[in-house]
Amino acid sequence: MRHLIFAALTFLIFSFSARIYAEEKKPATFSNAKSHRTILGGYGQTHRNLGDTHVRVQQSDLILQYGHFLTEEAGKSWYKVRHEILIELPFSYVFHPDDGIMTGINFLACWDFTATEKIVPYIFAGGGLVYTNIDVSGLGSDYNGNYQGGIGIHYLIHKNTALDFNYRLHHISNANTVEPNDPLNSSKFLLGITLLK
Question: What is the span of the domain harbouring residue 47?
């Protein structure tokens, strides 16, 4: 009887250890990852006459992004989703109408639609703080706020690595804390690499 109990315990321990090992070796995907790191680069341009935007500003963008998943995968069949928070450190080099920079920090909420492992669409929205030294009439302040929203696609290319494409509508203003306050409303088109963990 002791041998039978010992054999059963050994089998259970071995099975449990093998399962933990298998789970550790399973590559991270958007349905099971804990977090991700993304680097994005792209182009942005204001829309004249969208809201109170009167000047054309063009910039190249570089964004370092950290994403932390807040939930497990929810839903079934074609509708599966995970929620995450994104923290971004954006840097923009403005080259029109004059040279300058924009930098700051963003906090965004994101919904990843994980029905397929290969292509994962997502939507996001949020905002943050912006510092700029650009000389644009109407902006009124070096320190501003921003809010933004957008859509994107993660395209898995290898195990825990994905290409990232996203479009965002981006608004910068000083929230009427300084006069004048003509906002910059722009579109940004971004491409990057995401590493899942």
Answer: 30-196
